[in-house]
């Protein structure tokens, strides 16, 4: 009951935020210059299509472009949204937006989550070691590795990984979710193939997050190490391992909030990573939708990211009350 | 020991990753299948899109699983020159086309391809935004009036009453043919009555017919067939978000010619994806990809052979002629003398471009086919010549103050050269052009627009005076000049042979309605509109007039002809089409599925 009374206001605020962001993004995407047809025609020509074929495709797109006044479109958008309908994609000639997003979402959520979890586990563990051993060579090396990966732009890291592991050494596949000749399902070859294809994006997410987690955890541990209760524990003769457990539990508290928030932000960050690896997830869909001025698809993808961030915020708030009893008082 | 204990988890993760990496085998092939791997340039795989050729993002692959009556040979002087496909042969008359189907043509479900399939496909084609009312439909549109089954393998397709489109045969041959069994339920049985209404003299009836057909079109294009039913050499077995597996269609009429048992088509989102696949030897052939020379070297080093063919697109500098001083022919000519097209092409499109030679509004390959040798040699090549440029400007009232050219009014002449972010060839070329103009005394700033959609909108709004633009689209002269003087510049061809012009409704160039060429006045819009209704022989003098006028007036300065640079890889297959193969332009344009149908590509 207490959780429910805490949850309901947060959900209400979350819904208002979703409406506000959905409204803002709806008008924002429609304010982009150019129309779906404008974006498409020259691209078709440059890809080698004849003017007749390009025109036929543009005509097909034109049929799905609403020509109603913007406010009328907005009212229709909200009404459909209330019914769980995100509309029809323009660049997919009327395929429902939910269908397109549903097809792409797993290929973003699972790699992004896997990367986040790996980065969190490795980064916080190494961060704690780097803090405790900060005067040793190991501590220095770990801190340097954290600064190194935290400083590399996502685009550069992804390009370097793609170049080395695919183009140069041909060790890892690229550009798909699995080997197309395998039958999808819970069978060994298919699962291995999916994992192989996900290694590069997952590694990018993991290496990107690793540096930030390591450095944040290190400073958090150092700050806790200076607290009076640790000094008291040391004076009372507690074993270093037990002491470290207390330090870690206290130092990791702020990390959980950031962890929950990172889930939402990773979805937005997937645009760059998936574009480099040509990995067919939400980020790639959003990128293509912007280029094609596919307003319903853009709005749908932005809405999905917004909902993820809002939900992550609510979960982070609730989680904090669970892991830190002081907040419950 | 303690340290090792702490590192246990990360070490385990690293070991897992290493193991998986070691298991990876890239593009693998089982011993029983002969897999051909490539990329479809015009149809990259789109996750979540249906296997439907009428869907703008559909996962369909012309030449492999998606068939037309014929495939275009890209012959600039004979637009009806096609490779046979579902149609074994055809006869084109002024009123329509008679098509004879391939003997033994079957769908991959074993049922024969029938005239009913062709009739339905033609009706569907008219629902895809092709149906309009008015003169343009009858002179330039797919103005099908009727489709009649002559016998079980022959179909007569006629233009609507009053139709006079000489490209009608070409348009019909290029339509996708789909099975009535799969698509038939989407189209009402009264669709041909609706099509007949398009040419009704009652405007309300005709407009209602367009609305009805467009509504059917929306249903058709969003339709998602449960499985692929193909009349082509292959049929889709599985579509992944990033690749498609197609298996050989045993019911294909020419299956004996098809060597690969499977085709894998890879998705690509940019040129660099294709470069990566080629550098690692994954593709058996690759379509045209713009690339710098270092990538070309790497790709050729990996064992790929290059085939260059005409691509019938030019990159050009265009002007908004409603902005002074670009309304003056001498100014545009002077700029053409300043810009060294060879130098610009070397930087902008060193692999996939040839510096524009003829400046006629068509690519060089088309110019040479339309014009006589004497006419070609009479064209002004605008070879770099700064003194000629200076004298033209001086004669037009421009002056020079120090190293800077001044407009006739005395204000400094500065140019903003607009291009598009992400169009790396245009941007590199713009930098060279800006240096050349700077050195000549016209300070030039290169400005990038964020993307092409914005560029086009801003252009139409007249925001740019000088910018990059694609011209000479398609092999036909009609399409090329439409881009400069036709529909794109506000001209409409009427059924009665007249042409109307409304400035402002067309593109950004605002070319004048009349030119004087060799002392004689011509109306380029009128001439361009006529092209659609003239036979190849009758069109020749008109094309020649337009080419000579364009060379003299320079509404655009063509910089390079794009070259289609395709690649083949002979490690797994052999007998690819080569530079000396007949109709090589068409073969490269149509892709490997059509090569295989023509008997090319054999197992090594």
Automatic annotation (TrEMBL), chain B:
Keywords: Signal. Residues 83-487 form the Solute-binding protein family domain. It comes from Actinospica durhamensis. The keyword Signal applies. This is Solute-binding protein family 5 domain-containing protein. Pfam families: SBP_bac_5 (PF00496). One of its GO terms (molecular function) is peptide transmembrane transporter activity. One of its GO terms (biological process) is peptide transport. PANTHER family: PERIPLASMIC BINDING COMPONENT OF ABC TRANSPORTER (PTHR30290). Residues 1-21 form the signal peptide.
């Amino acid at each position: 009951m207490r959780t429910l009374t805490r949850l309901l206001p947060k959900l209400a605020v979350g819904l208002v935020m979703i409406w506000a962001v959905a409204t803002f993004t709806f008008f924002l995407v429609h304010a982009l210059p150019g129309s779906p047809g404008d974006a498409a025609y020259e691209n078709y020509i440059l890809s080698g299509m004849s003017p007749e074929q390009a025109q036929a495709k543009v005509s097909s797109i034109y049929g799905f472009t609403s020509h109603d006044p913007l406010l009328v479109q907005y009212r229709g958008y909200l009404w459909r949204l209330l019914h769980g309908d995100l509309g029809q994609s323009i660049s997919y000639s009327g395929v429902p937006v939910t269908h397109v997003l549903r097809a792409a979402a797993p290929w973003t959520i699972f790699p992004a989550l896997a990367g986040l979890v790996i980065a969190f586990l490795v980064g916080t563990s190494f961060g704690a070691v780097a803090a405790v051993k900060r005067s040793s060579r190991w501590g220095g090396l770990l801190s340097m590795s954290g600064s190194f990966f935290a400083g590399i732009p996502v685009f550069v890291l992804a390009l370097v990984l793609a170049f080395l592991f695919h183009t140069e050494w041909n060790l890892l596949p690229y550009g798909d979710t699995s080997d197309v000749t395998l039958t999808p399902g819970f069978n060994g070859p298919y699962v291995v193939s999916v994992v192989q294809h996900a290694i590069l994006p997952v590694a990018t997410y993991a290496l990107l997050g690793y540096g930030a987690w390591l450095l944040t955890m290190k400073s958090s541990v150092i700050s806790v190490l200076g607290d009076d209760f640790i000094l008291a524990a040391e004076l009372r003769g507690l074993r270093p391992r037990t002491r470290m457990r207390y330090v870690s539990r206290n130092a990791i508290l702020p990390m959980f909030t950031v962890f929950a928030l990172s889930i939402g932000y990773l979805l937005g960050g997937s645009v760059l990573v998936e574009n480099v690896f040509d990995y067919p997830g939400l980020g790639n869909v959003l990128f293509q939708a912007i280029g094609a001025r596919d307003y319903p698809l853009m709005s749908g993808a932005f809405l999905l990211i917004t909902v993820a961030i809002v939900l992550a915020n609510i979960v982070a708030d609730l989680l904090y009350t669970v892991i830190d009893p002081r907040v419950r008082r | 020991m303690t340290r090792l204990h702490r590192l246990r988890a990360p070490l385990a993760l690293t070991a897992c990753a290493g193991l998986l990496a070691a298991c990876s085998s890239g593009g693998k092939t089982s011993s029983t299948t002969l897999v051909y791997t490539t990329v479809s340039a015009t149809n990259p795989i789109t996750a979540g899109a249906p296997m439907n050729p009428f869907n703008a993002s559909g996962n369909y692959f012309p030449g492999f699983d998606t068939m037309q009556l014929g495939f275009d040979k890209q012959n600039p002087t004979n637009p009806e020159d096609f490779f046979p496909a579902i149609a074994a042969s055809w006869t084109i008359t002024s009123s329509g086309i008679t098509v004879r189907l391939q003997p033994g043509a079957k769908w991959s479900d074993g049922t024969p391809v029938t005239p009913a399939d062709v009739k339905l496909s033609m009706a569907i084609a008219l629902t895809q935004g092709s149906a309009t009312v008015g003169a343009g439909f009858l002179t330039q549109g797919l103005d099908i009036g009727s489709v009649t089954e002559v016998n079980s393998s022959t179909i007569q397709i006629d233009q609507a009453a009053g139709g006079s489109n000489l490209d009608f045969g070409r348009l019909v041959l290029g339509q996708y043919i789909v099975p009535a069994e799969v698509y038939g339920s989407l189209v009402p049985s009264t669709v041909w009555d609706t099509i007949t209404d398009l040419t009704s003299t009652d405007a309300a009836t005709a407009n209602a017919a367009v609305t009805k057909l467009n509504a059917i079109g929306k249903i058709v294009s969003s339709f998602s067939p449960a499985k692929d039913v193909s009349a082509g050499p292959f049929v889709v077995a599985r579509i992944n978000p990033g690749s498609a597996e197609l298996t050989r269609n045993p019911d294909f009429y020419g299956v004996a010619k098809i060597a690969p048992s499977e085709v894998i088509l890879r998705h690509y989102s940019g040129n660099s994806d294709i470069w990566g696949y080629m550098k690692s030897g994954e593709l058996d052939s690759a379509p045209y990809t713009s690339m710098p020379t270092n990538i070309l070297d790497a790709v050729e080093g990996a064992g790929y052979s290059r085939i260059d063919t005409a691509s019938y697109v030019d990159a050009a500098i265009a002007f908004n002629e409603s902005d002074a001083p670009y309304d003056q022919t001498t100014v545009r000519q002077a700029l053409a003398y300043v810009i060294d097209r060879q130098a610009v092409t070397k930087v902008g499109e060193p692999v996939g471009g040839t510096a524009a030679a003829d400046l006629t509004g068509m690519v060089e390959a088309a110019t040479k086919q339309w014009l006589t040798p004497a006419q070609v040699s009479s064209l002004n090549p605008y070879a770099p010549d700064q003194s000629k440029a200076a004298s033209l400007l001086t004669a037009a009232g421009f002056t020079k103050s120090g190293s800077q050219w001044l407009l006739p009014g005395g204000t400094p002449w500065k140019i903003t050269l607009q291009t598009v972010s992400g169009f790396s060839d245009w941007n590199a070329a713009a930098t060279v052009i800006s240096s050349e103009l700077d050195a000549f005394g016209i300070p030039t700033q290169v400005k990038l627009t964020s993307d092409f959609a914005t560029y086009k909108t801003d252009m139409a709004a007249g925001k740019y005076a000088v910018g990059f633009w694609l011209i000479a689209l398609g092999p036909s002269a009609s399409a090329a000049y439409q881009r400069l003087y036709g529909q794109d510049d506000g001209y409409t061809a009427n059924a009665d042979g007249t042409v109307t012009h409304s400035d402002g409704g067309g593109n950004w160039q605002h070319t004048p309605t009349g030119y004087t060429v060799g002392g004689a006045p011509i109306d380029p819009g009128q001439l361009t509109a006529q092209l659609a209704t003239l036979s190849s022989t009758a069109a020749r003098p008109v094309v020649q007039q337009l080419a000579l006028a364009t060379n003299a007036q320079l509404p655009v300065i063509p910089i390079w002809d794009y070259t289609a640079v395709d690649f083949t890889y002979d490690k797994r297959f052999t007998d690819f089409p080569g530079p000396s193969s007949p109709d090589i332009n068409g073969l490269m344009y149509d892709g490997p599925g059509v090569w295989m149908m023509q008997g090319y590509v054999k197992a090594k």
